[in-house]
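Mods, move this if it's the wrong board.
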Amino acid sequence: MIQQLSQSMAMRKSNLVNLPHLSEERTFLFLIRRAFLAAVKCIKQWKYPVKILEQYQICILSIKWTQTMRKKCLAGALDALVELKAEGKIRYTGIATHYYDILLRGARDERVDVLQGSGNLLERGMLDRIREEALFQKKGFLVNKVYAAGLLPAKFPIHTLIGFVLSYPVSSALIGFGTKEQIDAAMAWDTQIYKPEIPSLEQVLSVLEQEYSPIPCDRCQRCICPFGTEIHTLFRQYQYFHLGKDYWALKKLALGIAKSAAHCRECVQMPCMSACRQKIRIAQKIQEVERLVQEHLAAVRKKGY
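Not the wrong board. Structure tokens:
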């Protein structure tokens, strides 16, 4: 667990929003992220990490909340964390998720101290919504996926990537490092002096257009599919396919793209398109993604893999 900490760093602003006890000198952020269903039982039996929390005067124990857990024991999980907090074993409770609606539920819940969500130069839609919602200003907020799984540093300067997320009302940016050069660049940067110019989404897309045809989706998650397709997730996998994680993305897309494309062909009302601020022709794009997957799977089969 300690080794995992060496792979990430919190780039903090001078004042951590609503986390007054997290000083630069004494803070040791230990984010324990676990997707668990029997939440109460798991936490009560989780003695080893709790002892580590006590040893380092650790602050946050967070649930990594997934889409499949929306209807399962949210109250029980938070109750268990609140109990640990009351016992003095942790100082703050939190929820970590990639879904805006779950973060909003956490922002409305007085038991939750800290929230963790994702966002970056390309996938900025959720951060935009968080900035517009006053409830989030009452919580500490940690943002991850700043480098988009390590893909964006090849396209944009690290200072721009980090500076972008710190331009939002967040407490800390959690940075995952892939190379020594990335570590050196981030550690040498003085966040109080260097203020990078923030490119617009259109400018970001223009850079990506030099290599492929990006879908102008910022993952705001306003598009709701009546058949249950996670449109923003599907588009994210398409982007990552072209940005370098082709094997991972193709594997993910192949799981459900045919079914999603079939639903698009059946859908008449298409409420997702009316909700999309980027005016993406969602049904058409999903058909294009399906053809992309079919072509590459056919190529893989032809090679005998």
